[in-house]
Each structure stands twice: as C-alpha cells, then as structure tokens.
Design brief:
The complex is a heterodimer of chains A (145) and B (142). Chain A is α+β, with helices and mostly antiparallel strands and 145 residues long. Chain A is 46% helix and 19% strand. Chain A has helices at residues 3-29, 60-63, 65-68, 109-140, and strands at 45-53, 71-80, 86-89, 101-104. In chain A, the strands form 2 sheets. In chain A, strands 1-2 form a two-stranded antiparallel ribbon. Chain A has a two-stranded antiparallel sheet with strand order 3-4. In chain A, helix 1 runs antiparallel to helix 4. The longest helix of chain A is centred in the C-terminal third of the chain and has 32 residues, at 109-140. The mean pLDDT of chain A is 89. With 142 residues, chain B is mostly helical. Chain B has one domain (3-68, 77-141). Chain B is 50% helix and 6% strand. Chain B has helices at residues 8-33, 48-59, 106-138, and strands at 43-46, 88-91. Chain B has a two-stranded antiparallel ribbon with strand order 1-2. In chain B, helix 1 (8-33) packs antiparallel against helix 3. The longest helix of chain B is centred in the last third of the chain and has 33 residues, at 106-138. The two termini of chain B are 22 Å apart. The mean pLDDT of chain B is 83. The chains are: A alpha+beta (145), B mainly alpha (142). The interface between A and B is large, with 42 and 35 residues.
Chain lengths: 145, 142
C-alpha cells in the first residue's frame, strides 16, 4: 500500500475522463452530420464507466483489507445512443426523404455542453488528488531531516 | 532508562497515524476517481476509536492478540496494541444518490481529502520535531 497506488487510481480516472471528453467533442463536432460510413446520421456516443479492482500487483495479498477496497475506473465500452434521429424539415437538403424531412443526429448540443463541464470538473478533482498524494509523499521524505 | 524508552509511544503513534492517513488517502482517491461510475458507493477508513483504545492499552502495557503464542518473546514495537491497529473500511454513501446509483459527493470527498492531507502533514511535522528534540538531547543541546 503506497502513494503510487493512489496515483494509479487517479490517473485511471484522468484517462477515463479524457476518453469521455473526446466522445463529447466527437458528438459536438458531428451534431449535424447526416452521413456516416455505417449509413444514416451520426449517433451520439457515450462512455460506460466501471469500478475495477487494482490488478497486477504481486504484493496485493500483503496489503490487507484496505487495499482490496480501492477501485480504479475503466471505460468498459462505448455505447451508441439508441434514441431515434431528430427529424428536421428541409426539402432542399440532399438527404431529405420523400416527405422533405432530414434525419439529423440525436445529439443535444446543450446536454453535451453540460456534460463537458462535468467531465472538466471531474478531471480537475483527480488532478488535485494526484497533487495531494505527491505532496504527502514528498512530506514524508522530510522526516528526520 | 531503557534505550527503547527514549522513543516512547509517541513516535509509534505518529508513525501509525501517518500510515493510516496514507491508506485513507488511497480510498478517497478511489472515491474521486469513481465519482461518475454508476452504482459506486464511496468508502472511508475509520480508525479514530480503534487508535484511541489502542493508545490506552499501549500505555497500560497490555499486549494485543497479535502475538500468536504467549510464550513468544515480545519484540518491542511488534504486536503492541498500537501496531495492530489497521482501521475499518466503512461505506459512506451520500444521503441522496444520483439516478445512476452513484453515491459519491465530490465536494464531500474533496473536503475529506484536504482534511486528511492536513492531518497527515501535521503528523509528519510532529514526527520531525520529535526527532529534532531527541537529536538536540543527544548533542547535549549543542
């Protein structure tokens, strides 16, 4: 049990939040993309977070009950939003259907912006946790100086 | 005066406190990392009461059950009540979990982390001062 395991945990969260941020950017960038390689309009993407135990540490058994409770976070899968596309009336659009409606991506820009602020704050919180661990580790080096 | 007597139980107590606060930090970091994970329940290390009672036992000279055999020669610092304090992992869910079942309150965790860090630094500072004092005594105040 050491400070480095807490840094591993925090950095796993940093990477997860960055993945989420990338997906939000992708959603915003493609908010009006009506064509995709898979066909049809772009579908909103979201990351699924899961708490996972620390692995690959041979001394885990020595760490005791506290270490067993420490969880890092991982993006287990990236899902596509199943909501139907937003229909917009625009007969002049090349992708309009017979009734003149265009299937637009199911991305809500306002929702994405709010989500982006959430991801930013979560990222900052984890940076603070890394800094705290670092300061505590450096402080212990002062014992007996 | 026995030579081990100069360290007293203060250094042992402060060392234990530093150790437990480091462990507590790992749990808090885990809570912050999972602040957006569905169905995650935050955890914390509770050790105040255990440490308090261990301190009482320690000063009255009692040995804890950590010594496997009563005929074993007790090694100083090993198997004392203080040494065996490991804290208890408790769940600290928020009163109003979100729709995804996540029970982490980020503000709460950040506050706990700041508090934990200050108390950790305080213990380290006291340890440093304690050693400084011993060093001064050994050098006869020179």
């Amino acid at each position: 049990m050491d400070f480095f395991s807490s840094m591993t945990v925090s950095s796993s969260a940093l990477s997860a939040e960055r993945t989420r941020m990338n997906l939000i950017s992708s959603n915003l960038a493609n908010a009006s993309a009506t064509r995709t390689p898979e066909g049809g309009p772009y579908k909103r993407k979201d990351a699924v977070f899961a708490a996972t135990p620390m692995e690959g540490r041979f001394n885990r058994a020595l760490d005791g009950a506290t270490a067993q409770q420490v969880r890092k976070v991982e993006v287990t899968e990236i899902i596509e939003d199943k909501n139907p596309p937003r229909l917009q009336y625009d007969p002049s659009h090349p992708d309009a259907n017979a009734q003149g409606y265009v299937a637009m991506p199911n991305v809500n820009v306002v929702e994405e912006m709010a989500d982006m602020i959430g991801a930013t704050r979560a990222y900052e919180a984890n940076v603070t946790a890394v800094q705290a661990a670092r300061n505590m580790a450096l402080k212990t080096l002062e014992i007996g100086k | 005066m026995r030579i081990e007597g100069i360290f007293g139980s203060t250094i042992e107590l402060l060392g234990k406190s530093v150790d437990l606060r480091a462990k507590n930090h790992n749990l808090i970091a885990s809570n912050i990392a999972n602040a957006e994970t569905p169905n995650f329940v935050p955890k914390a290390l509770a050790f105040d009461d255990e440490l308090q009672s261990a301190l009482k036992n320690n000063s009255s000279g009692q040995r804890s059950s950590a010594i496997p055999n009563q005929r074993h020669i007790p090694v100083r610092g090993v198997g004392t009540a203080l040494q065996s304090v490991s804290g208890k992992v408790i769940e600290t869910p928020a009163k109003t979990p979100g729709n995804d079942g996540n029970a982490v309150e980020l503000e709460n965790e950040m506050g706990k982390m700041a508090e934990n860090q200050v108390l950790f630094n305080a213990s380290v500072q006291l340890l440093t001062k304690k050693f400084d004092g011993l060093r001064t005594a050994i050098r006869e105040g020179k």
